[in-house]
Design a protein that fits this description.
Helix content: 25-40%
Number of domains: 1
Order of helices and strands: HHHHHH
Number of helices: 6
Structural class: mainly alpha
Distance between the termini: 71 Å
Shape: globular
């Protein structure tokens, strides 16, 4: 019986049994800055946070669900870096956007929970790049 299995393997009969997995759901994340010659100041990140995040992740929001549920306040540099209940200090890992929870949560395949902003369209590519590059450059407050 073993010789029959070995013969089938050698003949390539089992090649058709490999699963079809399809294309990746998300592009591979790279930690490199997309434009090392141009620094991304935190003020540009603040604009992205204002547009997409502060409706839920600010203490002054009408419905601050992001603070009530996740404990994540994105209204200042200090509160952003403090993180929330789930992500903690890994909310931003300077130089490592692909390990930073805030970048992963706004991407197409977050490591846990829902993609943010919840119930709204995703960040556009330009805003994703701002967040990614700011983190890749060290996530400084300047």
């Amino acid at each position: 019986m073993r010789w029959l299995v070995a013969a089938a393997l050698l003949a390539g009969c089992l090649d058709d049994l490999a699963p079809e997995v399809g294309p990746p759901l998300a592009p591979r994340c790279l930690d490199e800055d997309s434009d090392p010659a141009t620094a991304v100041p935190f003020s540009h990140v603040e604009e992205v946070l204002e547009e997409y995040c502060l409706g839920c992740h600010s203490p002054t929001a009408e419905h601050p669900l992001g603070i009530e549920i996740g404990g994540l306040d994105l209204s200042s540099y200090a509160s952003l870096r403090a993180g929330g209940v789930r992500g903690g200090a890994s909310i931003v890992v300077p130089g490592r956007p692909c390990e930073s929870v805030i970048f992963l949560k706004v991407g197409p395949a977050p490591p846990f929970g829902s993609r943010m902003p919840f119930g709204f369209p995703p960040l556009d590519d330009e805003d994703l790049e701002v967040l990614h590059d700011w983190i890749a450059e060290g996530a400084r407050a300047d």
